[in-house]
Amino acid sequence: MIILPAIDIYEGKCVRLEKGDFNKVTKYGDDPIEMAKMWEEKGAKALHVVDLSGAKTGKYSLKILEKLVSAITIPVEIGGGLRNEDRIKPLVEIGVDKAIIGTLAVEDFNEVVKIEKKFPGKIAISLDALNGYVATHGWQKKTDIGILEMAKKMEEANILRLICTDISRDGMLKGPNFETYEMLKKETKLEIIASGGVTRKEDLEELSRIDVYGAIIGKAFYEGVLPWEDVKPWI
Question: Could you identify which of 83, 171, 227, 231 might form a hypothetical disulfide with 104, taking C-beta atoms 3.0 to 4.6 angstroms apart as the criterion?
Answer without folding.
Answer: 83
